[in-house]
Write a structure and sequence with these properties.
Number of strands: 9
Order of helices and strands: HEHEEEEHEEEE
Mean pLDDT: 84
Largest sheet: 9 strands, antiparallel
Shape: elongated
Helix content: 25-40%
Strand content: 35-45%
Number of helices: 3
Low-confidence stretches: 1-24
């Protein structure tokens, strides 16, 4: 059950991201009050906030909390759907690091995005080897799923 919820969170993130990247428009001055109030409640210290909207549906805010670049997705009534942030590989849970070291020895962790939705945390991890780039999706239990593997040129 936890695995299903975690994978749903990651799937939601990917769907929202792809949807927003394809259809979003910059709406910095036109965010409804429910969404603004919710954002302020969750992220009081946010700076450099930029808002995007998908044709009147969900909202996306890109911003900084201190030095951390973050993204938050909100429903049109202000419900926080998902947050994402870039983290360092050494900030991954120990169980995940152990699984990566065992299964992908010789690879270097290059990028990590932490995704949080409805009490589930997932990670999208990009690994680099001498010949390939590998993008993994994982949950806090350390279960690794290959999203894509690209051969270097």
């Amino acid at each position: 059950m936890k695995k299903t919820i975690s994978l749903l969170g990651a799937t939601l993130f990917l769907a929202l991201t792809l949807s927003f990247n394809a259809k979003a428009s910059d709406i910095n001055g036109d965010v409804n009050s429910q969404v603004k109030n919710s954002f302020t409640r969750y992220f009081t210290a946010a700076s450099h906030v930029n808002w995007y909207n998908e044709k009147g549906n969900n909202y996306m805010a890109r911003f900084y909390l201190g030095d951390t670049k973050m993204t938050a997705y909100f429903g049109k009534k202000g419900h926080l759907l998902l947050t994402s942030r870039a983290i360092e590989g050494n900030q991954l849970p120990l169980k995940i690091l152990q699984h990566i070291r065992e299964k992908y020895a010789g690879n270097t962790i290059r990028y990590v995005t932490e995704l949080a939705a409805d009490n589930a945390t997932n990670y999208v991890i990009t690994l680099e080897s001498a010949t390939h780039w590998t993008q993994l999706k994982t949950d806090v239990n350390g279960d690794l799923i290959v999203m894509q593997k690209l051969k270097k040129a």
